[in-house]
Each structure stands twice: as structure tokens, then as C-alpha cells.
Amino acid sequence: MAEDIYDYDVRCGTCHKKFKVQLFDSHEKNLFLVDKKSWYCEPCKKEYFKKQTDERTKAQQEIGLPELKGSVKQVSWSVKIREELINKVNFLKKSLKFENDSEKEKSDKAFEMFLMEWQEKTAAKWWIDHRKMTVRDIADRIDEISETLNNG
Ligand SMILES: [Zn+2]
Question: Do 99 and 125 lie in a common domain?
């Protein structure tokens, strides 16, 4: 049997313009999708991602991180990655317990220096390459920095 490929008219959930989509399931299933799914046309999708990227960039600039450089797609992906990594840093910071104030001070300083390293990473690609960084990886780097503080 030949593959069924149908064009369907759907309406954009943002600008309400009609546009066509190709769906590859059975006609019945496709009709269900056309009806139930939220559809967005390409220009609205682009606008939406741009807005999200701008908002993330702005929030990250507020904590001292620079705007990222790369293609539109790379920047959009990398600010999302950076947001997740910042959450990991914050999670780690909150989970630490200290014996005394001077330990806490040293830790704060190490976090500060860690973020300074991130401030230098302006290429979207760097963040994409490091997207799998775990809380453990971050903790290890913070420990390394703390060590240099001990010796200094
Ligand atoms: Zn639209």
C-alpha cells in the first residue's frame, strides 16, 4: 500500500492565520491531531523562540553573564543550556553546609570565581559542547578553585 501523506489546513494559535501541514499517520489520526494539537506557523514559532532567547539572555545578563555569540539556533539552544547549568550551580550552592563563617566565605569566593570563568565563555558552541556538565562536574571545579584559595 502506498504511504498516505496528507496536507491539512490548520490555524496558527498565535496569529490565527491558516497554513498547511503534512501529516503521515492514518487520516483519522491526522484529523484528531489537526483538531487537538496547538499549531503555530513558522514566523510565529521563530518569533516565540526569539522572545524566549531574549528573555533568557536578559535574565542571565542580570547575573553578570554575557550575551552569547553564534547562529540564531546555536544561541537559542545555548542560553537554554546555560539556564539549566545555572540551576545546577544554585542547587549545589544551596546544598552545601559549612562548619563556620570562614568556610562559607571561602566557598562563596570559589563560586564567584567559578562564575567569572563562565563570564569568559561567550561562544554559544562552548555551552553546547558542555551541555552534559553535571552538578558533580561543577562541584569538582569549585573544589579545585577552593584548593587554589587554600594555597594562596
Ligand atoms: Zn502565526
Answer: yes
**Its pTM surpasses 0.85:** no
Q: Is residue 43 part of a domain?
A: no
Residues 6+ apart with CB under 8 A from 98: 104, 107
Same-domain pairing of 31 and 64: no
- Centre of ligand 1 to C-alpha 82, Å, is 28
3-state secondary structure of 63: coil
Ligand 1 center to 45 CA (angstroms)? 7
Cα of 19 vs centre of ligand 1, distance in Å, is 9
Quick one: 24 and 59 in the same domain?
Answer: no
Instruction: Render pLDDT for 35-81 as a digit per residue (tens, 0 to 9).
Output: 999 999 999 999 999 999 999 999 999 999 999 999 999 999 999 99
37 alpha carbon to ligand 1 midpoint, in Å?
14
